[in-house]
Amino acid sequence: MRREHGYSSVTVLIILLFLSSIIIGLMSFLRISQDRSNRFEETYAREEKLDLQVMDLIGILSDDPTPEADSRFDPVWAYVENHNTENLSLKLEDVSSRFNLNFIRTKMIEESSFKGMMNTGTSPEELKLFRGEEGLFTDINLGYDQFFEKEILEKYFTVYGYANLNVTYEDSLKKLYEYNVSLEGSSVFLGSIQQFVSTRTIADTAEMKRILGVHYDSLYPLVNIESLMNINFVPEEVLLAVLSYPYGGEKHEDSSAFYDVIRAERSSFEFSSDRLDSLLQLEEDYLRIKEYLGTKTWFWKINAIEGNRGIEVIIALLPNENSDDREKKYKVIQWKSLNG
User: Fold this and answer.
1) The pLDDT value given to residue 321
2) Beta-strand pair 330-337/309-317
3) Alpha carbon distance 86, 98 (integer Å)
4) How far is CA 238 from the centre of its chain?
5) Cβ-contact 90, 303 below 8 angstroms
6) How confident is the model at residue 116 (pLDDT cuts 50, 70, 90)?
7) How big is the chain by its Cα radius of gyration, in Å?
8) Dihedral pair phi/psi, residue 327, rounded to 5°
9) How much is the mean pLDDT over the chain?
10) From the CB of residue 267, how many other CB atoms can be counted at a distance below 10 Å?
11) Which of 20, 48, 211, 311 lies at a C-alpha separation of 20 to 30 Å from 152?
C-alpha cells in the first residue's frame, strides 16, 4: 500500500511538473507576445511620429513667406535644426540644383572641369551614347557610376529634376516622349524639337505649348521652361560651369564677376529672383544661363531617422501655370522605409 502511495506521489509530482511547464511556457509565450506587441506598438508610434515630422516639414516649405525663392534663410531650416535631437535625425536636402545626368547636354561637361572628373577611359561622348542606348535612370548610382566616382555623382549630379525645353538634350526629350506618350510619333516629336533648336531662340510658354501640342498634359510639368537649379544651393563648381560655358562661342565677359558676386551674396542673404534679374542682364545666347539658374528648388529629399527606423521622402514642387498664383504645391514622388 505504501509502494502504491509512493507511485501515486510520483505520478502526482510528474503531473504537477507537467502542468508547471505548461504554465511557465504559457507565461513565457504571453510575455514574448506582449514584448512583441509592445515593440510593434513602439515601432508603429515611432514611424507615425516620423511621418508627422515629415508632413510638418512639407507644410512649412509650402508656407514659405518668400515663395519666389528658397534659401538657407527660410523658416524651414530653423524647424530642421530645432527638431534634431539626440534621438531624432531630420535632414533636408535640395537634390535638383545639380546637373541632371539624364538631361544634360554633354557639351557642358566637355567644356568644364567635370570632364577631368570622369573615370579613366570614359568621355562625355561615351556618356551621351550610353544614355541613348540604355535610357534614363532613376538611381544615379546604378546608371552613371561607370562615368564618375560615387562622391562626385552625389555632390554635383542628380537624376531628380524637370527637363527645361530650352537646354535639355534633344534625345532625352525624345525619351521622355516615349516613356510618357508612346514610341509611335517620337521621331516626329524629335524633329520638331530639333527644328526649334536650330532657330537658336528661347521658348516662352506659348512656344512650349505649341511644341508639346496635343500631348501637353502627358508631358507637362516634366517638360517645362522653368530654371533648372536654385542659385542659393547650386554647388560652386556647377555654378562656375554654367556661367563660364561658351553659349555665344565664348564665355560671357562678366562670368567671373557674376560668379564672385553670387558666391558672396548668397552666403549673407537670400538671393531673390529680382536680385538675380538685376545681376544677370543678359542678351542673345547668354540668356540660356537663366534657363539653368533660378531661385526655386524643385526637388527636395527629406530624411527622418529615429533609432533603427527611418524614412526617406522625395517631394517635387509643382510649377504654377498661373503667374499670379504664389501658393507652393508639393507632390510626394517617393516615400521609402530606411528600417535597419
Assistant:
1) 78
2) antiparallel
3) 31
4) 17
5) yes
6) very high
7) 29
8) -70, 135
9) 88
10) 10
11) 311
This prediction has a pTM of 0.85
Reported as a single tens digit per residue, the pLDDT across 64-82 is 999 999 999 999 999 999 9
CA distance 42 to 131: 45
Other Cβ atoms less than 10 A from the Cβ of 212: the count is 21
Q: Which of 274, 308, 311, 293 has the alpha carbon at shortest distance from 58?
A: 311
CA distance linking residue 231 with residue 72, whole number of Å = 11
AA identity, residue 98? R
Supply φ then ψ for residue 117, to 5 degrees. Answer: -90, -10
In the chain, the amino acid numbered 56 is D
In the 8-state DSSP scheme, what is residue 272?
-
Pair 290, 231: CB distance under 8 Å: no
Say which residue the cell 560668379 belongs to: 259
Per the model's pLDDT, the better-predicted residue between 153 and 12 turns out to be 153
* DSSP string covering 116-175: GGSPTT--HHHHHHHHHHH---S-HHHHSTTTS-HHHHHHHEES-S-EETTTS-HHHHHH
Question: For residue 77, what is its C-alpha cell?
Answer: 531650416
Q: What is the DSSP letter of 287?
A: G
pLDDT the model gives residue 152:
97
* CA–CA gap between residue 312 and residue 121 (Å, rounded): 34
Residues 6+ apart with CB under 8 A from 239: 231, 259, 262, 263, 293
The per-residue pLDDT for 339 is: 75
